[in-house]
Write a structure and sequence with these properties.
- It contains 28 helices and no strands.
- The chain is mainly α.
- The longest helix is centred in the middle third of the chain and has 36 residues.
Length: 629
Amino acid sequence: MPTTTSALPCWPKKVLDVTVTIIAVVWGVFQLYTAYDPFLDPIRLGAVHLAFALTLVFIRFPLMAGRARTVGIVISTIEIVLTIATAFYICKEIYGLSARIGMFEPRDTIYGTLAVLLVIDGCRRVMGMGLVTLVAVFLAYAYLGHLIPGLAGHVEMSNSYIISHLFMSPDGIFGTPMMVAASYVMLFVLFGTFMEATDGTDLLMRVSQRALGWTRGGAAKMSVLVSSLFGTISGAAVANVVTVGSLTIPLMKRTGFSGSNAGGIEAAASTGGQIMPPVMGAAAFIMAAILGIPYADVALGAVIPAVLFYVSLLIAVDLQAKNAGIRGIPVKDLPKLKDVPLRSWFLLSPILLLVYLLMITGISATLAGLYTLLATAAVGFVIIGWRFLPRMITAFRTGAFAMLQVSIAVAAAGIIIGVIGSTGLDSKFSTLILQATAGNLLLTLIATAIAAIVLGMGMPTVGVYLILAILVAPALIDLGITPLAAHMFIFYFGIMSTITPPVAISAFAAAGLADSSPTATSIAAFRLAAAGFVIPFLFVYSPSLLFADNAGVDLIRIAAATLALVAMTIALAGMWLGKMAFWERCAVAGASALLVLPDGVSSSIAVAMLVLLFLWQLQKARRSRLNPI
């Protein structure tokens, strides 16, 4: 995101920069203080949080491209004033507003309408028309749905009733998702930017280079490893691409990878960062709140799928390098870990502290985020000294900018969820889905995956997750899927949409760094990350992969899942011990499909097929060496 604003171009650049920085720092400090001393109730906290976000949006993003400058300045200024006034009204009238849900007074309706319109315009400025169009469709349903006959319709509702539910109900703008974003999601976003400010990413880069840089296709494997490590502190795919890819993509190209493949590798690896504990994508925190479980349970459940994803990606990269004859980086050119100053290793201590606080002590995610963030700042000052202060200010600014999309998307999704709740569409939609798929689990899963990918083309993961979690997750749970597996399934496909053509945001960001075709880069990322499209089906049919049942860890299912993904990766690459014929690839793909099923007979047949195919490949390789021509 650019560092200067363009919505108020009449202001001098330095004044704008200073103003934006002050707002960002005050916002960050406010979030830290409310985490330490929660003196505001959730709705008031959400109102102030959203006011900070909208104010930055109306300063930073123009009203409309090509709009007359004076008109844009005036409207943006008015919107900032109305944003602050609405937040003040909520904080002042919170108890009366909560008591008057469904029977708002005229002034309540005015402020509620303002809040809805401000969120819609903020969403349009930050994310374009995709999510805004969906919001408009749901609002039209709220006002006109009584004209629809049958199950899909609803009773007629007054404007006051609708606005009260969107504005103040637990399902509306300031519902659970906004509470989660305002209470601790921003803390973890700031943790990621603070770690960058301490040069923690540089240390991760050195460790990754030394660990895998010397192997076949080492530059690409290093990219995968460092992106996975960066994913432990940042749950944003595009941020991961930009931060890590600016260093790894040029190196991959120099060692022999094409621009599209280099960009695709980085996009796939960075997308996996959203599923990498302990700091996952923002939707994971909201998932925990919706399910009513500790965030630690969500993070723990994500461990095995994340490992499977990155193991599959490393194998795909290795086979691609083998096929192209790309070697590793000479050992003499790799950094020596013994040359890393001892004190630099303390940069990893905040990550270890976060894991300890979340997974072992069991304290709340809010306090874990607060303590870890303070520890990161302390480490920064100890290692870097007072030079860390300007870096910390930049980290506050970067974190605030990164939070804008999350906060605005959550608010816009709150409008949709408010409509769903007030019209009863959630239960109706679940019934319609089950009727359309005749209660078939596989068909319902495929329909859900397609919906998540399509929605993900026009909105961020958190918006996709929230909408489908309300509309579709109940149907999945009714079919016998565990709640965590159902929600994680939606979460995964919302994430994978960022590398799914034709609109693949992460891949497009990587293409810009790789100077390659966005379409070719997204296709490369899609192919390399194919495991990410299979893993959700694996943990739905085998919930022990998420630690979601009482059986504990099922080592046999973990082994079967790993083998299924490895086989699928080999089939897609067309390379094993050597190049594979089409029938061989089909046979390996068939074995992979059998391993997905939680059936002992199917798995045994698949293993036998893979053993025979391996022996066949081994025999082919021996013949090739004996008869090179």
